[in-house]
Design a protein that fits this description.
Strand content: 15-25%
CATH superfamily of the largest domain: NAD(P)-binding Rossmann-like Domain
Number of strands: 12
Distance between the termini: 39 Å
Length: 278
C-alpha cells in the first residue's frame, strides 16, 4: 500500500501542535504515511498550492496567515468555509484542490463531548470578533441558538461580524457585559485575552444564570482565569484544547481514510508538549 502524505503550512509554523495530533493517529492506526510542518511565506503561498499534487500530498492543513488566501485560491469550498470566509483544510477531488473549515465542527464536537447541555441554549454571548468568533457563531446558529451577542472592545468589528450573520447576531460594546451576562445560556471567549503572554480577561461572572456554560477557546494556559472563575461559581467550564483536537478529525479522515477518535491518550500527548514548552 502506498504511503500517504499530509502537512500543515503557515508562517511561522514551528509552534503548530497539528503534527502531534496526526502522527499520534497514524501510529495508532498503523498507517504508513507522514504529516509534516512546512513554513511557507505569504508571497510563496499561491505557488505552494499549485505544486501540491506534484509533491505527492493528499492534502493538508492551513494556519495563519494563509487561511483567507486559501479560501480565495481553492477550486471548491465546503459550506463551513463559505460561512466563515477562511479555509483550514485542503484535499483533492477529481484532481481539483478543495478547501474546508473544520473549526465549527471542532467547537461543536468538543462541547458535545464535554457539556452536551449546550445544545439546549438559546442565547449566547461571544467575546471577540475575529476569525475564531466567526467559526463559533456559525456553530451556535447551526445548532439552533436564537440570539448571539458579539461583544468586542472595538464595536465596529462586532458590527461587521453581526452583519455577516444577519438576524441571528447583534453587536455590543465591552461596557454592556454585566447586563448581557444575566440572560446568557453560554459564554464563549474567542479573544486572545487570558492567553499566556496576553493581557488578562477580567470579567465578574456573578450575573450569569446558574445553568450557564462557560467556554474558552484559549488552551495556554489550559485553565484560564475565566474558567477558574466559572469553577468558583459552580458553573460548567469547557477548555479550549478539545476544539483543537476535534477539528483535526475530518482532515485526517479525508487524507488517510480512517475516522480517528479524540481520546485521553491524545489529549495527554498534546498536554505534555504544551507543558514542555510553557
Amino acid at each position: 500500500m502506498a504511503e500517504i502524505h499530509a502537512f500543515v503550512c503557515g508562517h511561522p509554523i514551528a509552534h503548530s501542535r497539528s503534527p502531534i495530533i496526526h502522527r499520534h493517529w497514524l501510529a495508532e492506526h498503523g498507517i504508513k504515511g507522514s504529516y509534516e510542518r512546512i513554513d511557507v511565506a505569504p508571497l510563496d503561498f499561491p505557488a505552494f498550492l499549485e505544486g501540491l499534487a506534484g509533491r505527492g500530498f493528499a492534502g493538508g492543513n492551513v494556519t495563519l496567515p494563509h487561511k483567507e488566501a486559501a479560501y480565495r485560491l481553492v477550486a471548491r469550498r465546503d459550506e463551513a468555509a463559505e460561512a466563515i470566509g477562511a479555509v483550514n483544510t485542503l484535499w483533492f477531488e477529481d484532481g481539483r484542490l478543495c478547501g474546508g473549515n473544520t473549526d465549527t465542527y471542532g467547537y461543536a464536537a468538543h462541547l458535545d463531548a464535554t457539556a452536551p447541555a449546550w445544545r439546549q441554549g438559546e442565547t449566547a454571548m461571544v467575546l471577540g470578533a475575529g476569525g475564531a468568533a466567526r467559526a463559533v457563531i456559525h456553530a451556535l446558529l447551526k445548532v439552533g441558538y436564537k440570539t448571539v451577542r458579539i461583544v468586542n472592545r472595538t464595536i465596529g468589528r462586532a458590527e461587521d461580524l453581526a452583519a455577516i450573520f444577519a438576524g441571528g447576531a447583534s453587536a455590543h460594546g465591552w461596557e454592556e457585559i454585566p447586563a448581557l451576562l444575566a440572560t446568557a445560556d453560554l459564554l464563549v471567549n474567542t479573544s486572545a485575552l487570558g492567553m499566556s503572554g496576553k493581557p488578562p480577561l477580567k470579567i465578574a461572572l456573578d450575573p450569569l444564570p446558574d445553568h450557564a456554560i462557560v467556554s474558552d477557546i484559549v488552551y495556554t494556559p489550559l485553565k484560564t482565569d475565566l474558567l477558574a472563575s466559572a469553577e468558583a461559581r459552580g458553573l460548567v467550564g469547557v477548555d479550549g484544547l478539545g476544539m483543537l483536537l476535534h477539528q483535526a478529525v475530518p482532515g485526517f479522515e479525508r487524507w488517510f481514510g480512517v475516522r480517528p477518535d479524540v481520546t485521553e491518550a491524545l489529549r495527554a500527548a498534546v498536554l505534555a508538549d504544551l507543558e514542555g514548552t510553557a
